[in-house]
Structure to design on (229 residues):
């Protein structure tokens, strides 16, 4: 039987006997494009992603959907509804075939209240998510599309192997996905990426989108933030 102890979030929780909760969890497999939770769902389960990837969308009051983030194996979501019992504020859809461990809101709270180690982990995660959202809120409020795109590409990028200066977004990002993250039209993303390639700031390769000089991108973002402030 699969156990909670095998899930990254629960590792190092030496102050609780997780075996008491193993049989109170559900293990589930989902197919690509299957909806995990939807807007306004009244469930309060918490989902721990064992394998696969999911996409989280939020919806504005005007009905526009914005990609908040993609989550990968080792991540978890749904803790907000487990904490306050309010309907879901986001849609979560599987990008690939996934396996998840599902814990009801009541059991999740019982676990958290029983373990100082896990409570501190949860608090740190919630704090980091608030900070990340504050940063994106500032970007979306004061930056234009170009600089919002720079920020998003830097967030998605990783150091490029064999090159200490460059970073790479791999696999290459879809333009409509970037548009959903940045909050603009796909055509605007296409235009800005073309400009980046023309200016020598980016290079399209089979393995991904290479950011040739991330330092310049960061400097441009900071300059734009100062001008807006």
């Amino acid at each position: 039987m699969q156990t909670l102890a095998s899930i990254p979030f629960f590792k190092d929780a030496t102050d609780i006997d997780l075996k008491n909760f193993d049989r109170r969890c559900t293990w589930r497999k989902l197919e690509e494009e299957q909806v995990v939770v939807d807007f306004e769902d009244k469930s309060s389960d918490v989902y721990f992603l064992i394998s696969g990837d999911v996409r989280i969308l939020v919806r504005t009051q005007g009905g526009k959907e914005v990609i908040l983030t993609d989550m990968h194996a080792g991540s978890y979501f749904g803790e907000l509804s487990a904490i306050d019992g309010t309907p879901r504020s986001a849609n979560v859809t599987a990008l690939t075939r996934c396996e998840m461990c599902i814990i009801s809101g009541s059991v999740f709270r019982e676990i958290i209240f029983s373990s100082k180690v896990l409570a501190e982990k949860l608090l740190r995660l919630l704090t980091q998510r608030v900070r990340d959202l504050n940063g994106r809120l500032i970007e979306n409020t004061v930056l234009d599309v170009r600089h919002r795109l720079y920020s998003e590409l830097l967030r998605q990028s990783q150091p490029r192997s064999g090159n200490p200066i460059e970073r790479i977004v791999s696999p290459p990002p879809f333009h409509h996905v970037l548009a959903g993250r940045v909050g603009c039209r796909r055509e605007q993303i296409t235009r800005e990426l073309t400009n980046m390639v023309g200016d020598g700031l980016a290079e399209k390769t089979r393995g991904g989108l290479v950011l040739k000089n991330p330092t310049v991108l960061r400097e441009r973002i900071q300059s734009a933030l100062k001008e807006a402030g």
In short: The first strand starts at residue 26 and ends at 30. The helical segments are 19-22, 79-84, 105-114, 116-142, 145-156, 175-182, 186-198, 214-228.
